[in-house]
Specification:
Low-confidence stretches: 1-47
CATH architecture: Alpha-Beta Complex
CATH class: Alpha Beta
Radius of gyration: 16 Å
Structural class: alpha+beta
Number of strands: 10
Shape: globular
Largest sheet: 6 strands, mixed
CATH topology: Nucleoside Triphosphate Pyrophosphohydrolase
CATH superfamily: Nucleoside Triphosphate Pyrophosphohydrolase
C-alpha cells in the first residue's frame, strides 16, 4: 500500500510501514450484541441534542471502490492517523457539515453519503489535549460528540489534496487507504473506542 505525500511542502522521511492486518479486533464485524442500525442516504440526519458539555462534530468514513478507508496523519502529531472530522457550525445540518469538512480537509468533491450512524458517539479529551484546545478554541469542552457518515469516493486519487480547498489551514501531511483494522490500530488511544464502533456500524459496507 503506497503512501501519497504532500511532497511540495513536507520533505521529512516517510513514516514506518503500516501495521499488518491482524485478528486483534475480531468483534469488529461480528459483535456479540445486536447489530447497530444504520440510516441510509434517503433519510435526513437526526438533530437530537448531543450530551451536555461536548462539542458537536462530524466524522468522515470515506471508502474507495476497493472498500479501503481514507486515513491521514496529523501535521502536529505525525504518528497519529485519523479519519477526517470537524466541528458543526451553529444551525448547520450534520450532512451539510460532513461534505464541507471533507472538502476543506482533503479537497474531495467526488463523494456521496451512503449511510450514517444514527446517534452521537462521544470521546473525552485527555487533560493535556483539553487544555491545549481550550486555548485554541476559547471554550472548555469535555470532548467531542460526533455524528459519523460513510461516504463513497467516486473520483480518482489525484483529486485528493491535503491542502484542502484552501479555506482552512492544512491539518494532514500523509494519507493512505487502510483496512478497518489499521484504522483502529493507528488511531490515538482516546479515539479507539469510537473508531471500533464506527467500523462495526459500517461493517456491511466494508466487506
Amino acid at each position: 500500500m503506497g503512501l501519497c505525500r504532500l511532497a511540495a511542502i513536507f520533505h521529512s522521511p516517510p513514516p514506518p510501514p503500516l501495521l499488518k492486518l491482524s485478528s486483534k479486533f475480531p468483534a469488529l464485524f461480528f459483535p456479540s450484541s445486536s447489530p447497530i442500525s444504520v440510516k441510509f442516504s434517503s433519510l435526513s440526519s437526526s438533530m437530537e441534542s448531543p450530551p451536555e458539555g461536548y462539542r458537536r462534530n462530524v466524522g468522515v468514513c470515506l471508502i474507495n471502490p476497493d472498500k479501503k478507508i481514507f486515513s491521514a496523519s496529523r501535521l502536529d502529531i505525525p504518528s497519529a492517523w485519523q479519519m477526517p472530522q470537524g466541528g458543526i457550525d451553529e444551525g448547520e445540518d450534520p450532512r451539510t457539515a460532513v461534505i464541507r469538512e471533507l472538502r476543506e480537509e482533503t479537497g474531495v468533491n467526488s463523494a456521496e453519503i451512503t449511510a450514517e450512524v444514527p446517534y452521537w458517539l462521544t470521546y473525552d479529551f485527555p487533560p493535556e489535549v483539553r487544555e491545549k484546545l481550550k486555548q485554541q478554541w476559547g471554550s472548555d469542552w469535555k470532548g467531542q460528540a460526533q455524528k459519523w457518515f460513510l461516504l463513497k469516493f467516486n473520483g480518482k486519487d489525484e483529486e485528493i489534496n491535503l491542502l484542502g480547498d484552501g479555506t482552512e489551514k492544512a491539518e494532514f501531511g500523509e494519507w493512505s487507504w487502510m483496512s478497518p483494522e489499521q484504522i483502529v490500530e493507528l488511531a490515538v488511544d482516546f479515539k479507539k473506542p469510537v473508531y471500533k464502533e464506527v467500523m462495526t456500524a459500517f461493517a456491511p459496507y466494508l466487506q
